[in-house]
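lol so apparently i was supposed to do this last week
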Amino acid sequence: MQTMTPQSVCVLGSTGSIGVSTLDVLARHPESYSVYALTARDRIEELAQQCRRFAPRYAVVLEESKAAQLRATLAAEELATEVLSGVDGLCQVASDPEVAIVMAAIVGAAGLRPTLAAVQAGKKVLLANKESLVMAGPVFMAALAESDASLLPIDSEHNAIFQCLPYPCDSLSEAGVEHILLTGSGGPFRTADPESLHRVTPDEACNHPNWSMGRKISVDSATMMNKGLEFIEACYLFHAVPSDIQVVVHPQSIVHSMVQYRDGSLLAQMGNPDMRTPIAHALAFPQRVESGVNALDLISAGRLDFEAPDESRFPCLRLAREAILAGGSAPTILNAANEVAVEAFLAGELPFTGIAQLIEKVMEITVVVELKDLETVEQADREARTQAHQILGELCGV
Ligand code: NAD
Ligand code: MG
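anyway here it is w/ nicotinamide-adenine-dinucleotide bound
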């Protein structure tokens, strides 16, 4: 019998919702995968606990002061894990020659540099961090084309679309695809009275009916900006134009997305709403491994509903479509303004309905430029954040 060396995995954002689900799947297959590096910004005690359990070669903490704290804890227990810090530390472990697979699960624009480092180093990259693709689409996809890296989508919708397409698929029309149906639950306020939305609290917005997720993506789901970011993500991942993609609201989150073919076939990927399914799929692709997720019981699910999204209730969806149609740095601006707005909402500085208003204003006044390289992306991101903070100050006097 052949003995297999486990593949080394780097989990960027290991203390987050996706990070923890990833470690759960990895722990089920110690013969196939070993944890080489773990990273986090905070929740250092949880990271220490993960180091005790998985004994990675490296742990990376964003801030050096917190890294020092972890280093002291691990040293006192005589654990061999080496603790690094900073964005350089994140890029180092994401591109380490020993690493085969990188799970990109940092939230927001902070994930861009390490994710890009993994792509440039030719890793198998499992992409959860949609913001990095949205903000840097053309630069990210060019880096992918120039490297030996493979990119597997973790976002449940994109993973579903990936599963419903032939592999590889460089052209939707050559594959006989008529369009992609991107499904979304509609979030916790799908049927709420629009007049009541300005009073929504962060905890209400983070209380998603079907998925348990980090706070930023939970707010994005409540505004449906998550679907907007996913719309842009799908355009880049599947070489699609906006008219190739239709958003469908599906409150039960059982169908994770669909592909309509020219011959009338509509392929769907279904399952219980649990991110361990797309994580296990992408990890093992093209094999299939056990994920810990129960088989879907369609009889107890009972019914599946579909409806058109209400863009007057969810203006973020329209803003995202406008951004990808405008091209260049418009998605970068959208993403940066959204990150500032969500942070302000979570801090109690901006009402829920102010999120879309702030983004729309930033998009109106910020000049769209061509994205040539990482520098132009980061410059556009910085500029949009500056504008967003200024407008935020005007909107709510902070
Ligand atoms: P989370 O907030 O639960 O976790 C984020 C992780 O990133 C944590 O480990 C945190 O310490 C780390 N982090 C945060 N800021 C950082 C920074 N500045 N530098 C370095 N590390 C930092 O988020 P999540 O829900 O796990 O989401 C992670 C990514 O996956 C997001 O881009 C999200 O859109 C995407 N995603 C999540 C889900 C889900 O079900 N949670 C589904 C689809 C896609
Ligand atoms: Mg999703």
